[in-house]
Amino acid sequence: MSSWPELRGPAEEVAPRLLGAVLRKGPVAVRLTEVEAYAGHLDPGSHAYRGPTPRNEVMFGPAGFLYCYLSYGMHVCANVVVGEEGAAAAALLRAGEVVEGIDIARSRRPGARTDRDLARGPGRLCQAVGLVLDDDGADLSGPAVELVLPGQALAHEAGPRTGLRLAPDRPWRFWLPGEPTVSLHRRHPKASAHHPDL
DNA sequence: GCTCCGATTATCT
DNA sequence: GATAATCGGAGCG
């Protein structure tokens, strides 16, 4: 039963369709403004590149479920599983605008100076929405966690992925133009070394 | 506004 | 034991 016909197809085609979608957990909901595509076993940048493990097994399942993992030992990041079952394709939820439960979101992110910082960045988004490691595998049909797709695809822009050590060059980051919650910066963790550029 | 840097732990080799 | 799809704070303009 493919209850998510809109999520079929390659990650880089499905991911932009998530822009403008609303993700809710309980009282807090965000409207997604920035996502990133990961093409599973075909993609050196994906956690699924080297095959199934206990952590990434949700990605190898059907579309419409949440894949959550711990990043840098302290931040939770969330993906929507997309594509055909077994392809392990997913879209990382990079940023959003809080559209419901903003007071609760603010209390969860006391460090945020402005509302636009509440869910700007994958770790911040999960903190604002209240997503934790235990939400790994959640069914996005609800009721605990729910995803509502926009009626039609919205106009978007694309650019290279950020933060990855491997395959950062694919233009698989997608965002809604003009959204203040979108962050277009940040370089690699470490430039490993200075190559004299030949 | 920008860049640099250290924190912290589940997961995999 | 090394790695990592990040964040927040410090320092500068």
Describe the protein in words:
The chain is mostly beta strands. It has a single domain (8-149, 156-175), classed as Methylpurine-DNA glycosylase (MPG) (3-methyladenine DNA Glycosylase, Chain A, Roll). Helices cover 10% and strands 26% of the residues. The protein contains three helices and eight strands; from the N terminus they run αβββββααβββ. Strands 1, 2, 3, 4, 5, 6, 7 and 8 form an eight-stranded antiparallel beta sheet that branches. A hairpin with a 2-residue loop joins β1 (22-25) and β2. The radius of gyration is 16 Å and the shape is globular. The protein starts with 10 loop residues before the first helix and ends in a 23-residue tail after the last strand. The relative contact order is 0.22. The protein binds a DNA duplex (13 and 13 nucleotides) through β3, β4 and α3.
Largest sheet features: 8 strands, antiparallel
Average residue-wise pLDDT: 91
Main CATH class: Alpha Beta
| Helix content class | under 10%
The secondary structure category is mainly beta
Q: Give the topology string: H per helix, E per strand.
A: HEEEEEHHEEE
* Overall number of domains: 1
Task: Kindly provide the radius of gyration, computed on alpha-carbon positions and rounded to a whole number of angstroms.
Answer: 16 Å
What is the straight-line distance between the termini?
A: 54 Å
The CATH topology label is 3-methyladenine DNA Glycosylase, Chain A
The stretches of 5 or more residues where confidence is low (pLDDT under 50) are 187-198
Shape: globular
CATH superfamily, called what? Methylpurine-DNA glycosylase (MPG)
Corresponding CATH architecture = Roll
- Strand-residue fraction? 25-35%
Number of helices: 3
Count of extended strands: 8
